[in-house]
Amino acid sequence: MTLPNDAPLSKLQFYVTTPYACGYIESKLAQSLIASPQHLVDAKTYNGLIQLGFRRSGKFVYRPHCELCNACIPVRIPINDFIPKRSQRRAVKSHESLSVAIIPLEFSEEHFALYTAYQVARHSGNKDQESAEQYRNFLVQSNVESVMVEFRLGDQLKMVSVVDIVSDGISAVYTFYDASDAHASYGTYNVMWLIKWCKRLKLDYLYLGYWIKESPKMAYKQNFVPQEALIDGEWQLL
In the prediction, which pLDDT does 216 show? Predict the structure, then answer.
């Protein structure tokens, strides 16, 4: 895939990282293509990059660039065509008592505690607990238009979703929630809420990041249909 001859994008340079352990497919190595310098990747520039399959982690904007693997497929939901399944409607109904607040990116001890508990519950394979500084770099820093969405049950924080707002949609960066409630469907409810928010903002797409067939962590994304994938440089219905 080539980069468009667009003025903001033409000012960027792109470099490939050294190989590192893939976080999704065991025993594989991964590489990323990084947009640089970071300070030039503003909201307008990012609008173009996300169309090309790039994502954001803190101030780093990247896309997979693995020499022998193309398992990471960017996917998005076309909002006006989305048809909820019965289970998704149930998730909305079961969590309709949650209150929602849209706030600026900011560090909160309450958020960090929920994030840490979520990592332990859902990603126990990672033995090293992230520091507050690592959390800040990952989720509280951004050069683009980003917000946090808080979901509470009464005074209890139940879920936080970090999202970017781009010209044609909302990009779900990362979501963490109270994983101690085995009967909750917070992840599904979050996607459904973001779809509804897209409609309210008159935006066309909800970007869900990468889908990886071999990764069970990514399986939930295929439950939201119809869905478009970026394949061979073109967004097309799966």
Answer: 86
Looking at residue 166, its pLDDT comes to: 97
Task: Measure the CA–CA gap between 164 and 142, rounded to whole angstroms.
Answer: 9
pTM over 0.85: yes
pLDDT computed for residue 26 by the predictor:
87
User: In terms of residues, how long is the chain?
Assistant: 238
CA dist., res. 214 & res. 206, Å (int)? 22
Q: Which domain holds residue 150?
A: 75-237
- Which one, of 105, 23, 115, 9, lies nearest residue 54 by Cα? 9
Structure tokens at 123: 């990603």
The stretches in the chain having pLDDT less than 70 are: 1-8, 124-128
Contacts of residue 113, defined as CB under 8 A and 6 or more positions apart, other chains included, come to none
> Rounded to an integer, what distance in angstroms lies between the CA atom of residue 231 and that of residue 224?
18
**Residue 40 forms part of a structural domain:** yes
- What pLDDT is stored for residue 22 in this prediction? 93
Task: Look at residue 195 in the predicted model and tell me its pLDDT.
Answer: 98
Q: How far is CA 48 from each of CA 63, 127, 158, rounded to the nearest angstrom? A: 13, 37, 33
Hey, how many other C-beta atoms are within 10 angstroms of the C-beta on 40?
15
- The strand pair at 20-21 and 13-16 is best described as unpaired
Q: Which domain-ending residue is among 72, 89, 116? A: 72
